[in-house]
């Protein structure tokens, strides 16, 4: 990537690049919480818990 191409990138894109790993972790954690909540609802509906 040339200096000029990097300058053309917006401020939002730079912010997203800096925080990419944090966003991936947050996505993983929220997916796990949603899966656990879904299983809990499923078990509650069928009277297992």
General form: rod-shaped
**Helicity range:** over 70%
- Helix count, per DSSP? 3
Arithmetic mean pLDDT: 91
Structural class: mainly alpha
Strand content: under 5%
Alpha-carbon distance between the termini? 56 Å
Number of strands: 0
Rg: 20 Å
Main sheet? none
Order of SSEs? HHH
Which parts are unreliable, with pLDDT below 50 for 5 consecutive residues or more? Answer: none
What does this protein structure show overall?
With 49 residues, the chain is mostly helical. It has a domain at 20-49. Helices cover 82% and strands 0% of the residues. The chain has three helices and no strands. It is rod-shaped, with a radius of gyration of 20 Å.
Summarize the structure.
The protein is mainly α and 49 residues long. It has helices at residues 3-8, 11-18, 20-45.
List key phrases describing it.
49 residues; mainly alpha
Helix-strand layout with pairing:
Elements (H helix, E strand, L loop, with lengths): L2 H6 L2 H8 L1 H26 L4
């Amino acid at each position: 990537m040339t200096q000029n191409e990097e300058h053309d990138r917006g401020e939002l894109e730079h912010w997203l690049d800096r925080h990419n790993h944090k966003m991936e972790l947050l996505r993983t954690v929220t997916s796990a919480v949603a899966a656990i909540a879904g299983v809990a609802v499923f078990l509650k509906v069928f009277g297992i818990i």
